[in-house]
Amino acid sequence: MSYGSEIENQSLRPYAFVKFDTFMQKTKRVYEDSRTINSLGKLNENLLDVTKIMTKNMEDLLWRGDSLDRMSTLSDQLRDQSKKYRKDAKNLNIMAMYRKYGIPAAIVLVIFIIIYIRFRFF
Q1: Is the whole-model pTM more than 0.85?
Q2: Mind listing the GO molecular function terms for this protein (predicted)?
Q3: Where are the domains of the chain?
Q4: CA-based angle 33:39:44, to the nearest 5?
């Protein structure tokens, strides 16, 4: 895209792209050089390695995202179960208190009612 503006502005006549032709000749020489081809091969290998690393990183990120979603779901379930456990524990404590103090409280209440009736009516 370095020569795009020159191509659009010039008319279509022979040798209108002389600057572009020199660029193309230089590029052709670079790619014809055997050392450059070897360098390009190494560069392609490096690019493949980078691509593999980036693919692995993306897979790891997706796996982490899936794990985070799963952990979020599990934490929501745990919170709901802990609320249920708290409510059940509160009810069990009340039931235990009734069992422990219910009979003595009923006996004391009956005694007070008997004393009240006895002094009130006699």
Answers
A1: no
A2: SNAP receptor activity
A3: 25-121
A4: 125
